[in-house]
Design goal:
The protein is 7% helix and 68% strand. The protein has 188 residues and is mainly beta.
Amino acid sequence: MQIRAVLGILTLLLISIPGAAQRDSVASKPSYFFSLHSGALVGKKEFGTSFTWSLIQGVRHKRFAFGIGIGYDTYSDDWRAMPLFASFTYDYLRIRTNSLYIQLNAGKSKIWNPMLRENEFLYYEHGNIFLNPLLAYRMIGDKFNLYLSAGYKFQMIEYGWSWGGNGGKTYVGQDTERMVIQMGFGFH
C-alpha cells in the first residue's frame, strides 16, 4: 500500500513537467523550474552510508526560488523515509550564468522500517521534523541545469509498541543526522 502511495505522488509530480521548457527572455519575470537530485547520506554511526534522492519543482524570480519537493532516503536496512518539504533557495554568488547558492528544505517525513513484522504486538512508526540545509552550485545550460550540492540532513524518527492489553508500552524517539552529497539535473 505504501508503494502505491509513492507511485501515485511521483506520477502526479512527473505529469506537471512541461513538455518543452524554455528560458524566459525577460529576466524580471518569474520562471518555473524542476530538478531531480540523487546522492549519498554519509555517516558512520548506527545507519552508515546510504542513498537519497529528491524531486523539487517551483518558481524562480531573480535570485530567489521557492518550491515543493518529495524525497526518498534509506538508512541501512533499518529505515526508509519519504520527506515532503518546502524548499527555499537564494543565489548567493553569480559566476557568469552559473550560481553558487544556499538552500533550505524543511517539512515532515513519513518513516517506516521494512524489516519489522507486525505479529503479536501493536507496532507503530511515524516521522516528524525534516531539515536539510545545503550549499550548492548550479551550472545553467540552454534548457538543462546541472546541480552539485553538499549539506546536512536531519530527520526525527518515532516508533514504539505495546504488548497486548496489559498496558505495557514502549516509546523510542531517534534522530538521524547525515551529511549529504548530491548531484542533479533540472529543467528551467
